[in-house]
Amino acid sequence: MRFFLRRAAFYLFTAWAAITINFFLPRMMKGDPVSAYLQKNQGTISPEAIESLRTLFGVDTDASLLRQYIDYWGLMFAGDLGRSFSKGLAPVADVIAVALPWTIGLVGIATIIGFFVGTSLGTIIGWRRGSRADALVPIATFFSTVPYFWMGLIAIALLSSTLGWFPASHAYSKGARPGLTLEFVADVIEHGALPALTIVLASLGGWILGMRNMMITVLDEDYVTVAQAKGLSPRRVMVSYAARNAVLPQLSSFALSLGFIVGGTLVMELVFSYPGLGKLLLDATTAKDYPLIQGLFLVITLAVLAANILADVAYAALDPRTRQTEA
């Protein structure tokens, strides 16, 4: 219990610091969202409407910075992240809610598949070190070193334009009506297969290499030798003794990769013209849409914190020594 309380206190403080920085950072930048909005709508807004906009965007010059900070927390707890002027003054939470499922659905699933496939292959390659299975390591590492945009373009040219196996872009066919129907779901899966494949190939080398190296290190430990001396089956020794301890460092990397799912997909979404948070962040930055940028940074920060919390819980469950040391 002491372990979980200490970790909870740490993450609460981290969340407070991140949200506070997220509040002050846009206010330290040159200009403000109202000025950027007025540049796009010159001569169409009255002075009274300008003051209303300043209140709406949380940059009311009549209110103190402390008052704005308190109001910011109150609005955030109410689910109000402001208004996006580049999206017709639509609520920021609604704009993010539209793009978030596409990013999580594609990149999240691809990242999980890459982790489990890479970790499983790394376990087998490390267990059978010195065998022909080692040839997979340089092959997978090569795909990891290729720039992602180049790999995406090659995949489009080969698998889409030449062979016609997958659509080249977008999340679903033009003219399709979104809905929970088998036809639409199949269309989404077909369009997401190619970018998901490139994500898995790009990440596979790191997972394989990391797990293989940890397996080689763990196999020299005394508890593995004792388990083999007891006559346990090779499969049980590999999974329950070697892999269980070797996978621990992988969990930290996996947590970080999960956290950056919501913000680290910009290149993929540009190459495949895929809707998501990465493309939305680029559009918001180009339009100087500070409320939307602020909301996206908040979502990315909370996603990273949530992923690290899950990693800590999994780490403590797999390795009791962690709980004892923290306690």
UniProtKB/TrEMBL annotation:
Keyword Nuclease recorded: no
Full protein name: Peptide/nickel transport system permease protein
UniProt key word Cytoplasm: no
Topological category with respect to the lipid bilayer: Multi-pass membrane protein
UniProt xrefs under PROSITE patterns: ABC_TM1 (PS50928)
Organism: Sanguibacter antarcticus
Protein's cellular compartments: Cell membrane; Membrane
Keywords, comma-separated and alphabetical: Membrane, Transmembrane, Transmembrane helix, Transport
Transmembrane segments: 7-25, 102-127, 148-168, 188-209, 254-272, 292-318
GO cellular component terms listed in the entry, alphabetical order: plasma membrane
Gene Ontology biological process: transmembrane transport
The ABC transmembrane type-1 domain, residue ranges: 100-311
